[in-house]
Design brief:
Blueprint lengths: L1 E5 L14 H9 L2 E6 L10 H6 L3 E3 L1 H4 L5 E3 L6 H4 L7 E4 L7 H9 L3 E4 L14 H20 L7 E3 L2 E3 L3 E5 L3 H12 L3 E5 L3 H9 L3 E2 L18 H15 L4 E4 L14 H5 L6 E4 L16 E4 L2 E4 L9 H16 L3 E2 L2 E2 L6 H6 E4 L2 E2 L2 H8 L1
Parallel strand pairs: 1-2, 1-4, 2-3, 4-5, 5-6, 9-10, 9-12, 10-11, 12-13, 13-15
Antiparallel strand pairs: 6-18, 7-8, 14-15, 16-17, 18-19
The chain binds nicotinamide-adenine-dinucleotide.
The site of nicotinamide-adenine-dinucleotide (NAD) has 30 residues, from helix 6, helix 7 and helix 8.
Length: 374
Amino acid sequence: MVQIAVPKETAAGERRVALTPEVVGRLLKEGWGVRLETGAGAEAYFSDEAYRSVGAGIVPRDQLFKGAQVVFTVQPLERLDFVQLEAGTIVVGLMAPHRSPARVQAMAASNLSALAMELVPRITRAQSMDVLSSQATVAGYVAALLAAQSSSRFLPMLTTAAGTIRPAKVMVMGVGVAGLQAIATVRRLGANVWAYDVRKAAAEQALSLGAKVIELPISAEGEGGYARELTEDEKKLQQEALAREMGNMDAVITTAQIPGRNAPILITQSMVERMGAGAVVVDLAAESGGNCELTQPGKTIEVNGVKIVGPLNLPSVLSVHASEMYAKNLYNLSKLLIKDSQLAPDWTDEILAGALLTHQGEITHAPTRALVGG
Ligand code: NAD
């Protein structure tokens, strides 16, 4: 029987767990063995008892990795754990390779086969394994709630005996998975929404959710449906045009990302200074440097009466649903690892090959290899 081990997450503030009892139940029926560290699901309100009741083993960490052939995590496994794993163990989770190339190097040195969930190719067959989408959905929703909560104004229009309140104006910059969810959520709360992205396809999706679209003469479709970095002239044009629009907004939610790079700066200090006192900026890109040049990751600051919120790890806030979605993504990927109850990954499969970070002592992901080399 192929054993999966699930450790309790140790990263500060991480509340998610890689597998939920429901998914563990399914894996056990399909012939896997599953062992979790004591308390692994506690922060997502899945008790040890709930895992035991579907047939999983619950053990302390020093017994967790014994005989495990596969390890499922949310955040990257700690280096201290590598030495406890047998050579050839498949470790699956978010790996943030660009942030810690040295850890990737250590995984290769320990002869682990690391599958980075953020590198799963975004092809149709892999949609059900797409953790970037599932977790961005959570983040976009929470970002909208943060904007509402941090605002000094109502979002919906209200007609009351104490007067009529006009609906808030919210701008969403970066209309990928998180941005679309943020638009849908602030719309449900009754705000008027404006959307901006450098990809033309994003405009249609924003319109379909009832947002108004800010159109600029910049089209920056990059590879694989992602955005490319803007040229200096394009950045200047973008900032000037957005500055005019931002002056009227009660809240701005930013989600712009460029794969493998720091987040692009869309909001400068002078743009913030043009916003009205009591307005709010929620910068979902805080983790990768921020879309606003004033953002302080993990903090909320106030500049001239404008709150700038730089949240970290928003998916972890909704630990129950974020874990459920993440666990289903892992479950779908697990089908590529096993055949007739035997571990049988086909490393040439497009999905596994795309996500493979280290294998047989080598770093197999070229951009990370370049980072380590450099
Ligand atoms: P992302 O997190 O990489 O970036 C968020 C958004 O920021 C993107 O819409 C991007 O265009 C935008 N952005 C980047 N630079 C910007 C700038 N300077 N100004 C304004 N906006 C900027 O994106 P994502 O949410 O992961 O989605 C990216 C693409 O992948 C989308 O086209 C999405 O439809 C596609 N996608 C495909 C699949 C699939 O086929 N399986 C799954 C999910 C997403």
